[in-house]
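All the exercises in this workshop are built on plain-text protein records. The record below serves as our worked example for the rest of this section.
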Amino acid sequence: MNLNKYRAILRRFQAKRVVVLRDMMLDEYVSAESWRISREAPVLILRHQATRLLPGGGANPVSNIHSLGGRALPLGVVGSDLMGEALLGIFRAKGLDTSGLVREKGRPTGVKTRVLAGGVNTAKQQVIRIDRVSEEPVRRATEEALLQALQRRLKGADGLIVSDYGCGLVTERVLSFLNGLRRRHPGLVVCVDSRYRLMDYRGVTVVTPNETEAAPAAGFEEYREGLLPQIGARLLSTTGARMALVTQGSKGMTLFQPGLPSRHLPVCGSTEIVDVNGAGDSVAATMTLALAAGAEPHEAMALANAAGGVAVMRSGPASVTRAEILGALEAGPALEEKKR
């Protein structure tokens, strides 16, 4: 394993500008102590201890680009509400440019609230999650503002991360613009993560679904490991992507490229996962920065695999650093690659 090669790639993250187009959200973590059973109903009463607001949704890959040393350029929609103000405040505290975030009156800022409960001397576990997310398409004026902001931000950009999770941000007009980027910006690294319509994207650099997203996208009712080669081939042939990176949780990840054998890496670090929330964002951010920094696809995958291994060992959405990625490569078997 040549760590000097990976150090050099990680150093080149510093100069890269990456636009992140995604539904910007907040992750709200409410910690509470188990107290007693209610007399009103057979439910547990929790005594509130603390509330944390963390970047979620598209705000998490923005945070990862920033923590990895790149220049993150967030692009999306937030509501004209208190949660929108909180999210903008988090970005501004990091020194990020928020001019690409369009505020739409009457549209709530996406919030995912996770309630964590436990006893005095026990670890807290998630007992319920409440999502406040709009799935309505953005208004025409918002769509126009987004497209104009996207065109401005792509000038001089090295990469673009598009995360389409069905919250109304990527309209048909926005999708059409994105599918023409290879012709207009041939050197741009475009990474797409889409839960429901991955196969509608065309000509991007890399798609990064997890295994349960990849199977239905490729036309299979459910995921089975034996189907993975067929899934990868179909992802490539339909989207025309240069590569497809399928993440597989505790089993690692597999990279597909047209005309080449697939490459598989085992999970980097422990298989005892703490929290998968946001790990895919760490993978997408690292993969995009690495490719923009001139890494070969298998090198970018190794770095992304290490980033994912770091992220899943933390509670809540994680922002990884270059030092942590390098430490994971030094400590784990992340480069024990298998060609299939």
About this structure: The domain at 3-24+56-109+134-339 is CATH 3.40.1190.20 (UDP-N-acetylmuramoyl-L-alanine:D-glutamate ligase). The first helix runs from residue 3 to 11.
